[in-house]
Structure formats: structure tokens, C-alpha cells
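User: Show me an example of a complex going from sequences to C-alpha cells.

Assistant: Sure. Here are the input components:
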Amino acid sequence: MTLILALVVGGLYAAGLYMMLRRSLIKILLGLALLSHGANLLIFTAGGLTRTHAPLLPSEGALTLAQSADPLPQALILTAIVISFAVLVFALALFRKTYETAQSDDVDLVKTEDEES
Amino acid sequence: MNSLILQIAARYLHPLLLLYSWFLLLSGHNDPGGGFTGGLVAAASFALYMIAYGVEQTRRALRVDPLQLAGAGLLIAVLSGLLGMFRPAAFLTGVWIAAPFPVWGVLDAGTPMLFDLGVYLVVMGVSIKLVFTFAED
Amino acid sequence: MLLVLPIIIPLVIAASCLIALRRIVLHQFLTLAGCIVLLANAALLFMRVRHAGYIVLPIGSWPAPFGIVFVCDVFSAMMVFMTALIGLLIAIYSIAGVDAARKAHGFYPLVNILLVGVNGAFLTGDLFNLYVWFEVLLIASFVLMSLGGERRQMAGAIKYVTLNLMSSALFLTAAGILYGKAGTLNMAHLALAMRESPPETLMVVEMLFLTAFGIKAAMFPLFFWLPAAYHTPPVAVTALFSALLTKVGVYAIIRVFALVFGHGVEAALPVILVLAGMTMITGVLGAVDQYDFRRLLSFHMVSQIGYLLIGPGLFTPAAMAGAIFFMIHIILTKTALFLACGIAGRLNGSFQLKEMHGLLRASPILAALFLIAAGSLAGVPPLPGFFAKLFLLLAAFSEGRYALAAVALAVSFLTFFSMLKIWNEAFWKTAPQPVAPAGPIPFSLLSPLVVLCALILLLTLFGHPFHEVCRTAAAQLLNSDGYIAAVRLQL
């Protein structure tokens, strides 16, 4: 299972980087999203894959930490997802504004006077 | 957009979703849920309202600017962390009270809940602001 | 208490600004007051740390390595102090230096959130928490960068946002691999765990971190976003970014390599050194070709990052002390140069050196202040830039890195030439036709520049005691045992 997930992580990184090399702004954004998904999945895999209980302590009963999954990677991924959500939404807004001002979503055409000179 | 079906549905769903967001916020204390999901559901309910009635009317329904909501949430979250420092303990240390409460029995509340409320407001404010920004121009 | 206030103060100010969304004057007042309190707090923190060595605070009273700890050593305290100082000066400068539209769109709350992120990154003792603070300061900087929505700002912001997001993804990847390897993200605990693992397996993670932080620090060959983006926002924003953002990247390189990879770092050092040399050269050569005042300064920023990287590259106490001295000097000098550039552009109505003229006659004070800052940047004795470079050169000589020392000297010479170019074009050259004299420079624009230049001169006078402080900070940085003991891991 770890191997399969490792391959998926690699695929996500490859796809993300490929998309980021494209000239279209929206594809760059999709590439960034894929890259952050890849990183999240990598943390999940690196934290160890075990089939156990959710790391929630029930109000009664005696579930110990040894019986449950490692909660830390899940907390890390949750944080990372929230952050990438916020950042990607900002990037989307920025790219849309750029598209409106430059009337193009081609990175090469979104140039400015001082770069052309 | 001017759809009667959506407008009627939004009128009834909006308070229901807000109520559900509060349920998520409060149950997040010991069970799955919490300020973040609650805030998102609240923002979604306003987004639905916005799709049905437009941005201007939603702004009126919200009464305050979404960023003010986020600012208030940020302040509440920081203050909940500061409360722990009076004990004296480190920043963000949880402080709990178990006070008798009429009808309820014992009210078991603490600063983490206050922190969650702050998160709820921040997430709600920022998400609504985002939706407004995309909807407006 | 002292340790979390550098985060709480700007956070509370930002929240209050957001609540009072339309009261811009109140924003200004709150930000100024907040920065003054922050400065006092940072000074107190520095004195406390000088006395105690380390101050450690487990957030939420969760002991390390289970909770997040905040750790402050002398280096962190110095950086927090500089953050507060620059924040205050930029807050003063922005009163007249930033237009009303940007202020109305949340300039002040964003600056405060940026300060929160920067201070958090300097104080945290947890790797993942460092990532979170990086994101906090990045998202604030994204909005500050694109605030205003001019087309050239957008073009710069796209590169800035994309490359920094990629760097964040790399950082996350590296942190994930380290967690899988060591099962912890507390930096002190990681340092212990890394001592047992063989150095060759560490190399992959080290390079991932170097790339991730290198993008943020604008290290060769990952610096292209900086000269493309930094000249587009208002000068107040650029000065703030140049003082703090890339420095956080360098700080992260120093902290992670000195603490987490303190043992088994040897294999990575030649890579850092070569990159440091290349960063210096490409930065200064890029500047030679530039005739836009702000772009020229942006390229010099890249070249100065190269000097800073000599510290972690040589990894000796002398080199680290030199790098810390250089860090403080460059924050003061670079901010002063950007602020001078802003005033000069305002007087001339242009940032193109070809179109600028006669500033020496128009404002002799500005010319004098520019000379101090430019001389310090180029390394003219006895200004602090000279001593900062001297310390780094001596460290390079004692390690037998003569090629590196030669590069640093040559780059210093080219920097001098570049500053001379600005002086000739903007200050010395007379106007082609007589122009109406510009009005007096507003006090709020000039006073931060005066303060910065006074501090540069003070650094000249008190160079020796200050270098002593840098040496303690460097010794502390390279002694990871002290850090680990201070964190008191509950294993």
C-alpha cells in the first residue's frame, strides 16, 4: 500500500510540475493545487499507514494511544489543506484580476512595459 | 439570478444552515466538527443566500462587513489564549470552569471553546469576503 | 509572556484595525502605537536573553516535544528587535508614502499580519510551526504586493506568488520526509534524532530545505522572482519586504542547518558556498545593466544575500558572527536605500536614472543620507558594511577559501561602481533645463531615513561591542546542545 501511495505522490508531483511549466495561468494554478495535494499525501504516507481506530478518545472506555492511528500527520495535513485552500483562492483571485487587466491568460503576454524595453 | 424556487428554498435553508453551523461549532468540542467546519457551513449559507438574492441584499442581511467579522474573531481567539496566562500559565493554556447552570445542570466551559468561536468567526468572515469578491466584478 | 507578545501585539492591532475597518487614521495610530510597544518588548526580550541565554515557552503548557515550543536565543532576539524597528519606521514612512486607496484596502492590518508572521518564524522551535508562520507572512505579502492592482504589479505578483507557493510545497515535502524519518517535528528533538542517522541519507532532505528556503531567500538560481516583483509595489512595501522577507529565508537556512543538521552538514557546505558565490556575482552583474533605481536596488539585494550565505556555508563561529553582523547591517542599509530611493523618485517624478537629476541641489540632506547608506552597502570604511564584509572575508581566508574571498571583493567593487552610477545620474547631474524647486520633503518620509542612517553611524562607532554580541549569538547557534538542553524534551 505504501508503494502504491508513493507512486501516486510521485505522479501528483510530476503532473503538478508539468502543469506549472505551461504558459496558461489557470494551468499553473492547477499545477500548484496538484503539488500541494502531493505534499499532503506524502505527509500522510510518511506518517505510517496503519489500520486502527481514529485517534479520538471516547468519553468512556479505554482506548489508549497505542491502539489508535498517529494523530499528528492528520493534524498537519488538515493545517496544510486549510493554508493551501486560502492561498490558492488568493492566487485564483490574482490570476483572474490579471486576466481582466491584460485580457490574456498567457504568461508571456502578461508582460509590462519595463520588461519589454 | 432571479429564481423563485431558489429564493424560497434559500429563505428556509439559510437559518437551518446557520443553526447547523452552530451545532458543528459546539459539538466540535469533543466530537468531529469545530470552528473551522462550522464557519465554512455558515459562510456557505450566506453564499446560498447571495446566489438567490444577490450581493447587495446579502450585505444588508449580514449587517457588518465580513472583514469586521474576521477581525472580531481574531480578537476573540487571541483573548482566549491570553486568559490562560492569568493563572499563570503559558499562552493558549486551556482554562476550564464547571459552574452550576439553571435547567442545564453543570455548565462545563473553557477557553478552547472561546478560541473555536474565534476560529468560526474568522473562517466565516474570510470565506464570505472571498465569495463576495468573486461575485462582485 | 515576553516571548509571545511579539506575535500577540501585531495580531491584536491587526484585529482591531479590521474591526474599525473604515477609520484609516485610527489604523495609523494603532499601528504606530503597536510598533512602539513591540520595540520596547523586543528590547526587553533581548536584554533578558543576553542574561539568560535562552528563553523557552511551551505554548498551551504542552511540554516539548508534544506541543509547540517558542525558543528565543540571542540571534532570534536580535531579529525580532530589527523586525519591530523596521515595522515602526515603515509605519511612519507610510503616513505620507502610501496612497489613500491602498490604506483603505487594508494596508495597515496587512503590515501587522506580516509582522506577526515574521516574528513567529524567528521565535518558533517547531518545524511545522515555522511552515505556518511562513504562510502567514507570505499571504500578507501577496496581498501587499498586489494591492493597487496595476498591470505591472500583477505581472510581478504572479511570479512572486507562483514561486513562493512552490517553495512552500517543497518545504512541506521536506518536513513530511523528516517526520517520517524521525517521528517528530520539534527542532530540538529532530536535532537529536538526526545525529544518529547517516549523513548521506540526510543529503536529500538538506537539499530540499535548501531549495525551499533558497527560493524565499532569493538565492541563485532561484532569485528571478525578486527583481521581477520587488520594484512594482510602493517603495514603503518594497522596503519592508527587502528588510524582512528574504532575511526570514536566510534565517531559516541558518537555523535549520545549524540546529537540525548541525551534525553531518559537511557534505552540504560546498553546495551552499558555491551558491553563495554565484548569488553575489549574478546579483551584482544584473544590477550593472539596470537604469531603474528600484530594480537596481532589487538586484543588489540578491547579491547581498550571497554574502549572508557565506555564514552557513563556512559554518565556523567567525563566519556565522560575520553573517549575523552583515544581516543587521544589511537590514538597516537596504531599508535606508529603498526609502531614499522613494524620496528621490518622489522629488524627480521618476525612478528612471536617465530621467533623474539634480537631487544634490534639490535636497542636500537626502544626498548626504544616501551617501551614508550607499557607502555602507558598498563597504566603504569605516561604515559598518566594510566591517561586515571584512569579518566574512577573514573567515573565508582562515578556512582557505581564497576564490570565495576574491569573488566577495570583486562584487564589493562592482557594488561601489553601481552606487556611483546612481550618485552621478540622480544626484550629481544637473537638470537639462531649470525646473521649479520641489517642496520640502514631508517629515514622515525623511525621519525614518534619518533614524536609519543614524543607526548605521552608531553601528560604526559601536562596531566592536556589537561584534561581541554577534559572536555570542554565533557561538550559541553552533552549540546545538545548549538549545536542546534549554527546550527540556520530555522523552
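The lines above are the inputs; the final block is the predicted structure for all three components together. The first helix of chain A runs from residue 2 to 20.
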